[in-house]
Automatic annotation (TrEMBL):
Belongs to the 3-hydroxyacyl-CoA dehydrogenase family. Keywords: Oxidoreductase. It comes from the Bacteria. This is 3-hydroxybutyryl-CoA dehydrogenase. It comes from Phytohabitans maris. The lineage of its organism: Bacteria, Bacillati, Actinomycetota, Actinomycetes, Micromonosporales.
Length: 596
């Protein structure tokens, strides 16, 4: 018969513990909330009160329900209070020794039937369990941050966890309105194993001044629809906790260099820059514990953001190409008031592109995004041509032709002959080195990358890529144009994958490896990332949409450029591509799309 769980103990009321207390108390369960000292207890209590007050202010919680919630919690110092708990979950710092000592003590204090649970993110639940005399009643219950909001719970069973304990905890999760995935004890479980390599990589980019913190975060939010950027997420998790998780994952997870904590993380922890909880991490907050950002010395000034300094005026924009990206980019520039010269390889192609632009603008009218007059004016600004010579008067040329270096190089050489001096020449490549295009011309200082996302009219992100030869003026011009389009330009150096693809695809590849290792199913992995981290799509859903062939090609580029062993394409991805399972477009990828 299932165990009655009516009183739960929570040990440690920091970032996670305070949230976990709230989750239980909200669902009618009595909570014994325990800390090490009066000061820590007070901090935990005020975090909790702050969180419930915010929920009331936002209309998400009734004041009476808040009072009832708070009345279910008793705050205590010391473990003695946990004698009668049916289940105890700990959320103390991520250190194995500390947790083992704590579990030995809990084993002595708690009643024999009590389940002892850890909220560890990366430590071995098995190693923690054997510090007790009841390892079969020890389990991992891994909540996500912020616990009251994120719906996922990873339930981690060891080889000795009793099946009825697993069942009781699964039933408890359902009572809490959470979705659980039950998995074996492996470093980082599902979500963190996929998340932390990505977070650490983002820190490395910031540390190398590859892009600014704002740009790295904006890139992932706008390019992938993530609820927050990686550096803001590091601040939310807490840099000390993130350090411990990375360190453990490195040691337990096969010494993958991608988990070796970036040196900057350790330095920040030593300097007390722990993220939101200390008021300062990658960003600066109003006060410790506050989510409100305040400007600091790294915050871009208004003039920097506008990037108008030294920018050349642009009136006419040439767009070369006739595919999806070219079509979208023509529409974007025309809508923003630029004269556009579209160049394709023939009148027939031009007619098709023109039709596609018209269709898309018509859709905009139907949806009330623009008026008929605006549509007609935008179309009136585009001229259609099949000869590059018509770009002689353009101030900016954007190429969006096929992703083949030789084709792009030949085009850049031709543009170099035709275009006026000082014109900015841009490539939309998503994977080729921009410098290779630049060096096909006699004016590499004027060449930049403008990496639009698909569909260009809808996606507000543009990666603005400068090579080691790009002039400050060309970069300023490119940034100003992107701003004038109403898009967010993220400036980065010319490295494989720029910001978004370099951070996104290794994570997708890791998900494929996890599936390949039979650690979990595609459905559970997708769910873990959506419900645990707020991603709009799980990795396998996204891979099927992007196309497995495209994903494999990008992953290969990243691997070739960086030679990072962890970036080697997952064999399963290669096999699926060889088998023709390319994703939605082929009717089958990780999932079968024919019957849907
Ligand atoms: N931060 C996250 O995003 C996140 C997400 C999921 C899981 N976790 C895991 O949750 C656990 C806690 O992490 P956190 O980020 O909340 O840490 P934290 O540093 O914010 O909080 C830890 C709390 O534990 C208290 N504490 C320390 N020793 C104690 C003891 N012996 N008895 C009682 N309380 C004690 C501290 O006073 C502090 O309030 C870790 O195992 C971590 O891996 C963290």
């Amino acid at each position: 018969m299932a165990r009655e769980i009516s009183t739960v103990g929570v040990v440690g009321l920091g970032t996670m513990g305070a949230g976990i207390v709230e989750v239980f108390a909200r669902n009618g369960i009595d909570v014994l909330a325990v800390e090490v000292s009066d000061a820590a207890l007070e901090r935990g209590r005020s975090t909790l009160v702050g969180s419930t007050d915010r929920a009331v202010a936002k209309g998400k919680l009734d004041p009476a329900d808040r009072d009832a919630l708070l009345s279910r919690i008793s705050f205590e110092v010391g473990l003695g209070a946990l004698r009668d708990a049916d289940l105890v979950i700990e959320a103390v710092p991520e250190q194995l020794d500390l947790k083992r000592r704590l579990f030995a003590e809990l084993d002595r204090v708690c009643k024999p039937t009590a389940i002892l649970a850890t909220n560890t993110s990366s430590l071995s639940v098995t190693e923690i369990s054997v510090a007790t005399q009841r390892p079969n009643q020890v389990i991992g219950i891994h909540f996500f941050n912020p616990a009251p909001i994120m719906r996922l719970v990873e339930v981690v069973r060891t080889v000795v966890t009793a099946p009825e304990v697993v069942a009781d905890v699964e039933a408890l999760c359902a009572r809490l309105g959470k979705v659980d995935v039950t998995i074996n004890d492996r470093a980082g479980f599902i979500a963190n194993a996929l998340l932390f390599g990505y977070l650490n990589h983002a820190v490395t980019m910031y540390e190398a001044r590859y892009a600014s913190r704002e740009d790295i975060d904006a890139a992932m939010k706008l390019g992938c629809g993530l609820p927050m950027g990686p550096l803001a997420l590091m601040d939310l998790i807490g840099l000390d906790t993130a350090y411990e998780i990375l360190d453990t994952m490195y040691r337990r997870g096969g010494r993958d260099r991608r988990h070796a904590p970036a040196p900057l993380v350790k330095q920040m922890v030593t300097a007390g820059l722990l993220g939101r909880k200390s008021g300062r991490g990658f960003y600066t907050y109003e006060k410790p514990g506050s989510p409100v950002l305040v400007p600091d010395e790294e915050t871009p000034t208004a003039t920097e953001s506008a990037a108008a300094d030294g920018a050349r005026g642009i009136a006419t924009v040439g767009v070369v190409g006739s595919g999806t990206m070219a079509t979208g980019i023509i529409e974007v520039f025309a809508k923003a008031g630029y004269e556009v010269v579209s160049v394709t390889r023939g009148a027939e192609k031009s007619a098709r592109v023109c039709e596609a632009v018209k269709r898309s603008l018509d859709k905009g009218v139907v949806r009330g995004r623009l008026t008929e007059e605006e549509r007609d004016a935008a179309l009136g600004r585009v001229s259609w041509s099949a000869t590059l010579e018509h770009l002689a008067d353009a101030d900016l040329v954007v190429e969006a032709v096929v992703e083949e270096l030789s084709v792009k190089q030949a085009l850049f050489a031709a543009l170099d002959e035709i275009c006026k001096p000082g014109v900015v020449l841009a490539t939309t490549t998503s994977s080729l080195p921009v410098i290779q295009c630049a060096m096909a011309t006699q004016r590499p200082a004027d060449v930049v990358g403008l990496h639009f996302f698909n569909p260009a009219p809808a996606m507000s992100l543009v990666e603005v890529v400068h090579t080691i030869r790009t002039s400050a003026r060309a970069l300023a011009t490119a940034r100003a144009v992107v701003a004038a389009l109403g898009k967010t330009g993220v400036v980065c150096a010319d490295r494989a994958g720029f910001v978004v693809n370099a951070l996104l695809f290794p994570y997708l590849n890791d998900a494929v490896r996890m599936l390949e290792a039979s650690y979990s199913t595609a459905d559970d992995i997708d769910n873990a990332m959506k419900l645990g981290c707020g991603y709009p799509m799980g990795p396998f859903e996204l891979l099927d949409v992007v196309g497995l062939d495209v994903s494999l090609a990008i992953q290969r580029e990243l691997y070739l450029e960086l030679r990072e062993p962890g970036f080697a394409p997952a064999p399963l991805l290669e096999h699926l591509v060889t088998a023709g399972y390319l994703g939605r477009k082929a009717g089958r990828g990780f999932r079968d799309h024919t019957s849907r």
